[in-house]
Write a structure and sequence with these properties.
The chain is an alpha/beta fold and 441 residues long. The protein has helices at residues 2-17, 43-59, 79-95, 111-115, 118-122, 180-199, 320-328, 358-365, 384-389, 395-399, 403-415, 421-440; strands at residues 22-28, 36-37, 40-41, 64-68, 100-104, 126-129, 146-150, 156-162, 205-211, 247-251, 257-259, 262-267, 284-291, 296-303, 310-318, 344-351, 372-380. Helices cover 32% and strands 23% of the residues.
């Protein structure tokens, strides 16, 4: 009898709470824990971000935290990076006892490694989908990727399609369409969405997560962590995200953005800058609020404080003499200065010809400055005549290019001088060895 009374009481609580129900969701992605920025460790920056995120979860009274892939920067993250991640999950749960966290794997993550502590994490109401779960017949088990979302009273309010980064083998590869990848991804999202809507109650909402490259999205300039496959064969149209979905939380691209003017289809972007092109760019997480009629009543970006300043000196490429004057103006190191808080610096130099001593000159000028030299962006002046010399105007010209010509042209275009004889001799030797190996085969 007591069991039936508990069930009845819980049902009354759930029905009553619907009147005042608001689901608060925080969408973030692409943390890349363990990443280095031009060989500098980012542990300090990531620590500050995770501390800030834990505080926002508490302050905003968040119900659900979505992490849309690329938790780690590499598939085999360091012990330090993993410890940082699990410490955060623990702190976030302490800060917000009823928090539900959903994590999907990105292309930088190891699906198996991310799922390894899955059983333990579920005790903290943290669900991980690293790879698509399969039934005994190898069909996708959509019941394991369509995750119930509950409010603070433990009452189900909706579902989340937690679709991780999809690789070859995650979908049928015998499709007749010209782009099997795109068709496969579309099929998986459609099936997951149809399954969610077939089991949901009338008042339930449905959201989705994904880690992919959507057509119409903008890549970050000079961000080499974003990988765009040749020919754009991995581009998935935004209509893969059903219009019935309240919100779609995307990861993979590091620039925060709304996709094709669909306010509820967004990339949260990375919380830390990934290149010097983000000098004046604000990183953020996305706050989403859904009411008791399954309607999104608010979507807003919440800016992430920048822990380390990015500096570019000068703002555009200048001759080395002008650059040295600017570097001399930088503040000196003091005993109180903390090097891990020092700005990252990119130096932009315009040269008439390649100078092998350039790095030494710049490092000497920065020897006692409170900055960390991250990049020397070196541009060699190039005349119109030279640019025309390297242009290719027909397929026949392209076919007739020889390895030696390509090397000479690239070297000349980059350094504005002829390839040195010693480099040319080394290259000729490599070509000779390659040709000998081919003949022996």
């Amino acid at each position: 009898m007591a069991v039936y009374l508990d069930i009845f009481a819980n049902k009354i609580i759930c029905e009553y709470s619907k009147i005042f129900f608001l689901m608060k969701i925080l969408h973030t992605a692409d943390w890349h824990l363990g990443q280095t920025f031009y060989d500098y460790d980012r542990f300090y920056e990531h620590s500050l971000f995770l501390e800030w995120l834990s505080e926002r979860i508490k302050d905003l009274d968040i119900d659900v935290l979505l992490i849309s892939g690329d938790v780690f920067d590499v598939s085999n993250p360091s012990a330090q990076a993993q410890k940082m991640f699990y410490n955060f999950l623990h702190k976030a749960k302490l800060a917000q006892a009823n928090l539900q966290t959903i994590i999907i794997a990105g292309n930088h993550d190891s699906a198996n490694r991310l799922e390894a502590p899955k059983v333990l994490l579920e005790e903290f109401n943290c669900l991980v989908v690293g790879a698509l779960p399969r039934l005994d017949n190898r069909e996708i088990d959509y019941s394991q990727v369509v995750i119930p979302l509950k409010d603070k009273d433990g009452c189900k309010r909706g579902f989340c399609l937690a679709i991780p980064y999809l690789r070859l083998g995650d979908y049928a590869n015998n499709l007749s369409e010209s782009n099997d990848f795109v068709k496969g991804v579309e099929t998986i999202y459609k099936n997951a969405c149809d399954y969610a809507f077939s089991i949901k109650d009338a008042d339930d909402f449905v959201i989705a997560m994904g880690h992919l490259h959507t057509s119409g999205a903008i890549l970050s300039e000079n961000d080499y962590n974003e990988r765009n496959l040749i020919g754009g064969i991995e581009l998935v149209a935004d209509n893969v995200f059903d219009n019935r979905l309240c919100y779609t939380a995307l990861g993979h691209l590091h620039r925060k953005q709304i996709i094709n003017k669909r306010e509820n289809v967004r990339y949260a972007g990375s919380p830390l800058p990934m290149s010097f092109s983000e000098l004046n760019y604000t990183h953020s997480v996305v706050f989403v609020e859904i009411d008791n009629s399954s309607k999104v009543i608010e979507i807003k970006d919440i800016a992430v404080p920048k822990a380390i300043e990015l500096l570019c000196i000068p703002q555009s490429h200048k001759p080395i003499e002008d650059v040295m004057l600017k570097l001399a103006e930088l503040p000196e190191k003091t005993d109180e200065c903390d090097l891990q808080k020092a700005p990252y610096l990119e130096v932009r130099v315009l040269q008439e010809a390649y100078d092998p001593s350039l790095r030494n000159k710049i490092e000497t000028a920065l020897d006692n400055k409170q900055v960390r030299l991250a990049s020397i962006n070196n541009k060699v002046a190039e005349t119109i005549t030279e640019r025309e010399h390297y242009s290719i105007n027909s397929i026949e010209e392209l076919k007739n290019l020889k390895p030696n010509n390509i090397l000479h042209n690239i070297y000349k275009s980059k350094y504005n001088k002829e390839l040195p004889d010693e480099l040319n001799e080394m290259f000729e030797e490599v070509l000779l060895n390659v040709n000998i190996d081919k003949e022996e085969e």
